[in-house]
Predict the 3D structure of the following.
Amino acid sequence: MSDNLSVLGKARAAYQPKLPSSLKNGALKVSINKGTATESVRDQEKIKALFPNTYGAPVVSFTPACGCSCGSESKAIRVGVVLSGGQAPGGHNVIAGIFDGLQSISKESVLFGFLGGPSGLENGKYIQIDAKLMDAYRNTGGFDIIQSGRTKLETTEQFDRCIKVANDLKLDAITIIGGDDSNTNAAVLGEYFQAKGASCVVCGCPKTIDGDLKNEYIETSFGFDTAVKTYSELIGNIMRDANSAQKYWHFIKLMGRSASHIGLEAALQTHPNICLISEEVKAKKMKLSEVVQFVADIVAERASQGKNFGVALIPEGLLEFIPDVGVLISELSEVLAHHEKEVEGLDTQAKVEKLCGWLNTESANVLKSLPVGIQAQLMLDRDSHGNVQVSLIETEKLIIEMVAKELKKRSDFKGKFAALNHFFGYEGRCAAPSNFDADYCYSLGFAASVLAFNKMNGYMSSVRNLTKGIENWTAGGIPITMMMNIERRHGADKPVIQKALVELDGAPFKYFAAHRDVWAKTESYTYPGPIQYWGPSEVCDVTNFTIKLERGAM
Ligand code: FBP
């Protein structure tokens, strides 16, 4: 056992995650049931042309095989695992699930962990994960067992290097544990491997605290549950402080690069006075000034009741969803991709001047209207997948600044507006997984070992029926191409997994919308407290509002 485990960590290490019945008897005792051929969610012809070998594969579900002693041990298999993208609670348990699944196939099976994300795979940097190492990380948060990274695998040179590594290590399968971009990587790599006749298959596993990698078959991405519970604990603590001192407004930016699932779930758990939902802002075509008016109205209304305090939740991706700012960001991404060298080394003001020459007039005006700090943040390098790095944009400060200005203009505003800003993101990504995430991740990993053993190329591990009790969870695999569409990235059309944004006609948003006016005016705050790992099941095994409302379980 690792020396750096706390008292809680040591006790937690002994937790045995639960498995759905189809996986309980080991990876060999699984029957694979195939559905019919599938299609991608959009752009079918284009995706089919890009994935001629893996497109159209059926959804598969696992059921328990016969209980006799046949198939109790098989030939050992060799698997490599990659942790990719942002950390999410439960990653170590996915690896534990793969490890135990491989052991159930043969005690001689080998699991390699590629170091530092996809670059470890490309460059052949790996360690062998043995039982001792695995035991030191069971039920812990973080990705530190092999670390993570955001390298995008996209060139044939990179793919060929991956094939060489897979061949050198005699791998039967590679499992990429990641979000939408990383699983896109998995699908592209799997397609290339098959086209080149490589015997190794590539599978994926749905990770991201953002909660935006979900669909009919992927009910939630792992890590969302724990991360939001962690943020909600902190938000609840801040609410109690706000309600005790009654002198500050707290503006809290919450992670979630695009979708507002984290903000929405945190709102359902804590009942803030304000929670902006990016998808609604976009649907209502609200300008930045209108968003500011909306927030200022609530601040003013509370002040008129003598309440110069409150809590507002701001989704990290908000700016991209405000139509005029969103257009500016995508134009900027395009322009920066094509004129990188020309603006290199310039200071913010000079850069803005130069870039405005290539932007449309409206976008140029929006850029010029923003504070210098935000301008600089919007022009920062995109990540390797072409996304603007929203965690580096201080939207919460921008909103505070603009609301303060707006209130100053209002002659009837007699209150005080003292605002503090917070950003909760990295605080939640490596928390010790909740019981739900510990079990879910372990099951996803175990299911991934079944996909690997059965050579199911281009599949994502899937565990469903998550609100029905683990005995009713169903495991299987989903062809990744089924989730894809074509999007503009780095100034080019690319196949990517379609992000699941907050649905405004979905049950979680409707519940929020039905309550937010009361929450705005009152202190209906709820204080979720810390995640509980032991105790009554209704306290420690609860999932979250989003999945329960989406699945009709409350
Ligand atoms: P993934 O999509 O890779 O899971 O990462 C999500 C996320 O946590 C976002 O919420 C956040 O915007 C981003 O990662 C931050 O990235 P980085 O860790 O590179 O700063």
